[in-house]
Amino acid sequence: TMRILWLRPSKGEHISIRRERIAEKLEARGHEVVIEDASGRDLLSAARTAIGGDFDVIAGNVRIGLYAGYPLARLLRTPFLGDVSDPISDIESLPAPLFRFFECYEWQVLKRADAAVFTYESSYREAKWRGIDGAKLPNAVDYERFADPDEGVLEEAGAILDDAGLDDGKPVAIYLGILKDTYCIEELLDAATQTPEWEFVFVGEGPLADVVADAAAEHPNIHYPGAFEYRLMPGFLAHADVGFCFKDAEQPLKLKEYGAAGIPAIVQPGELQRWYDENELLFVEPEPAAISAELEALAADERRRQQYGQALQQHAREYSWDDIAAEYSRLFERIA
What is the DSSP string of 45-60? Predict the structure, then answer.
């Protein structure tokens, strides 16, 4: 049994994050995992936890968890695992000198860490090119949890959607996750106003939560029940016909969850096209008219909708969180 401190960027309370899924499985294996937010003022609390916690291993997740966790681990003479769940390109929008500084620092930390994990194939390949002996541990999903949700979860999620005013006689498009402009939330809201024959459901929290709530109050086919515990996500997806994922990345976590639930995903062209083909994902420009047109086409062709859901479901079967946690456990035990 080990005590593991996992430092991460501060997120909303109910945002689905891979660290929580992995921690659940590690704890089932007998380890104790403490996850601490490390952004902004949270960093002081995280440092106090590290200093007073007598941990066997410290793991730091990009970006701030890695950047602050490494010097903290070295100060405490504690083994350190660097965890890269998102590529460095995610912060390319920073001013060029600042981006180059963080890029250089990040790779130096990963070279010196006792172990390094990469979620994305692109990051893993660059690490190998840089001479870093890391492990590639992709995103995963508890397949059965989404493919065959618990009856109580189905009923609870259904009651929440009923209270939000969902018309279950219409097809349902859903977005799960952080509500911020990076994920084209306002474009989805505009698409909803152009597609009254579809119900749009938003579940999550973030900077645009008030914008979504205002839209839900104004338009009868937009629903924002709020943010909820992760255990209810399979229930919400069971009531949906299609999911949105406009993160331009190799393997967004929500795609695994949509796939396990058997619903097709509308995504934007870009990075995902390197890893999926047009028979597996619905590639649509994140523009209201294009989103609306795709939904209208899906509503008119149930067989096509099912084919895309089944194709994505095959991808979701590839990795389970049990498999991923087993590899993390092996790495933690080796460096401890």
Answer: HHHHHHHHS--SEEEE
- How far CA 287 is from CA of 177, 187, 241, 331, in Å, comes to 19, 6, 20, 43
Q: How far apart are CA 321 and CA 29, in angstroms?
A: 12
pLDDT confidence of residue 275: 86
Helix axes 288-299, 185-194, angle to 10 degrees: 50
Instruction: Locate 170 and state its tokens.
Output: 């219409």
Closest CA to 33 of 61, 11, 63: 61
Rounded to two decimals, what is the model's pTM? 0.89
Spatial distance between the Cα atoms of 89 and 249, rounded to a whole number of angstroms: 10
Rounded CA separation 318/87 (Å): 22
Three-state DSSP state, 201: strand
The dihedral over CA atoms of 281, 282, 283, 287, expressed in degrees to the nearest 10, equals: -140
Peptide bond into 8 cis (omega under 30): no
Closest among 223, 318, 302 to 263, alpha carbons compared: 302
State the average pLDDT over residues 131-153.
Answer: 95
Give per-residue pLDDT as tens, 211-233.
999 999 999 999 999 999 999 99
The predicted structure's pLDDT at residue 10: 81
Query: For residue range 233-284, what is the model confidence (pLDDT) as tens digits?
Result: 999 999 999 999 998 888 888 999 999 999 999 999 998 998 899 999 999 9
Structure tokens at 96: 């060029």
- The band of 190, judged by pLDDT with boundaries at 50, 70 and 90, is very high
Q: Which residue has the tokens 């909820």?
A: 228
Element at 277 (helix H, strand E): none
Q: Which residues, in sequence order, are bridge partners of residue 58?
A: 5, 80
